[in-house]
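Internal ticket - ligand job 532, magnesium ion:
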Amino acid sequence: MAFMNQKGGVGKTTTVVNLAAALAELGKSTLIIDMDPQAHATLHLGVEIDEDHLSVYDLLLSAETDPVDARRAVVKTRENLGVIPAVTDQAAVETELANAPQRHLRLRNAIQPLLSEYEYVLIDCPPSLGLLTLNGLAASREVVVPMQAHFLALQGVGKLLETVSLVAREINPKLRVSGVVLSMHEENTRLSKEIVADLEQFFKDSLQQDVPWKGARVLRPAIRRNIKLAECPSFGQTIFEYARWCPGAMDYAQLAANIATEWDRF
Amino acid sequence: MAFMNQKGGVGKTTTVVNLAAALAELGKSTLIIDMDPQAHATLHLGVEIDEDHLSVYDLLLSAETDPVDARRAVVKTRENLGVIPAVTDQAAVETELANAPQRHLRLRNAIQPLLSEYEYVLIDCPPSLGLLTLNGLAASREVVVPMQAHFLALQGVGKLLETVSLVAREINPKLRVSGVVLSMHEENTRLSKEIVADLEQFFKDSLQQDVPWKGARVLRPAIRRNIKLAECPSFGQTIFEYARWCPGAMDYAQLAANIATEWDRF
Ligand SMILES: Nc1ncnc2c1ncn2[C@@H]1O[C@H](COP(=O)(O)OP(=O)(O)OP(=O)(O)O)[C@@H](O)[C@H]1O
Ligand SMILES: Nc1ncnc2c1ncn2[C@@H]1O[C@H](COP(=O)(O)OP(=O)(O)OP(=O)(O)O)[C@@H](O)[C@H]1O
Ligand SMILES: [Mg+2]
Ligand SMILES: [Mg+2]
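stdout (structure tokens):
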């Protein structure tokens, strides 16, 4: 499941970490893959690795001649929760793999052996539509788009869906967009009501088209703005470790329960 | 004055547009340069240009052999307020100018003839440290960093200052960081108090070093979180046109007044 949005600061990392933590608490074996060279998901979880530990960077550079075993890259960070950490060197992958064969499939190929071990794999993408995000998309079956119910946020969605279409056509025909997670949500404002209405109308119209976001919807509940969600990364904790009963934790727990009910049908 | 932060969604565009509008209302002739291919500042101001109108893209590609007159690129959008609009093609500049001579100085060279006409030039940078932002930095005397008082936001500041140092050393020795604008600020939270204290300590220590951010500080007032600031872009309005007396407008007006008092001494 790739969590992507080229717009920065919209809650991708916060959603990946806390949703994964909630799924893990529900007993689902969950893996986080941190594609962002800024390594915020890795930091958020309080994971530090020494220089020899494998990272996403190693998986991307891994070649068929000398494949890296992705299982050695996983850090078991909590019960039912593993993470393949990010490192700053990942930023160079855009140039380093610029003309490499199968440069969009590096991640997908590398994680094949892992897939049987995890019920949920959540991929945290950087704020761009470059090679790192494309690897995340090529390796996923589902795309989730965290976003704020703001005007400028809506502007970027068109470009994002274009990219998803491109990947679905050229690289990964099974890819579909499950929907949008409303992040940092301010429920009782006119703006958020209008933006949510726009989104729901858009998804309703898409039901008639043969597009990767046919059947996508606004996932519920929205995640309300809650300062605790911004505080817990500084302690290397998930929201459930930091403030078990705060609104942010309740929202992510409910979202995870809804997703699990839905996904477990397949 | 370059407004930069490689982290996305931290309030660069909102700050550039509303600060510029406030300065314009104080009677200062102000120019906004929209470096972001997403063109959010251009959108925010309600500016639409037809295909032949010059944009930042044209200024960047403008060569000495066939220079473009930057004055023709300016759209007079309100009293005392001009903007050089952005277009999506700007995103390609990274590759198009990859080996071009003076690729970091394109903007600076292009806007020379304009500088005498404006008291304030505010440059809105995209969320990256690439060629567009470097052009913004090379063309500026001052750097302002909009950011949220959040833990993950602090992580990016180191890398940002490294880039500013690089530009100051290699390209633009006059460049200095005036400070940080706290954006989407939630004043009474423990987190924001801690982060602000960290920032103020950091700037205090920097007074002893010969760095471009010597003398930088947390600019006041902080801009409080206020939904009106997220609503007005959808109407193509500045906060002063949309909700003249809301907290967001008061904060930007005060910030502009403080900046003007300070800058007018030079
Ligand atoms: N619901 C929320 N309430 C309050 N703060 C939040 C919430 N969600 C995220 N934040 C904070 O907002 C900031 C941006 O969130 P986050 O880092 O998750 O976004 P992102 O999309 O991953 O950013 P990037 O594009 O840089 O990867 C962080 O400081 C985070 O702690
Ligand atoms: N003080 C504020 N209160 C409420 N909402 C705000 C505030 N400042 C900015 N916003 C909203 O937050 C979102 C991000 O702000 P903005 O677009 O200015 O950030 P940015 O740093 O320019 O983003 P990008 O990196 O994409 O260029 C926008 O939807 C904006 O309307
Ligand atoms: Mg992130
Ligand atoms: Mg912006």
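Auto-summary: Residues A 8-14, 36, 40, 127, 183-184, 223, 225-227, 229-230, 233, 248; B 7-8, 148, 150, 152-153 surround adenosine-5'-triphosphate (ligand 1) (CB under 6 Å). Strands of chain A lie at 2-3, 30-34, 75-78, 81-84, 120-124, 142-147, 176-182, 217-219.
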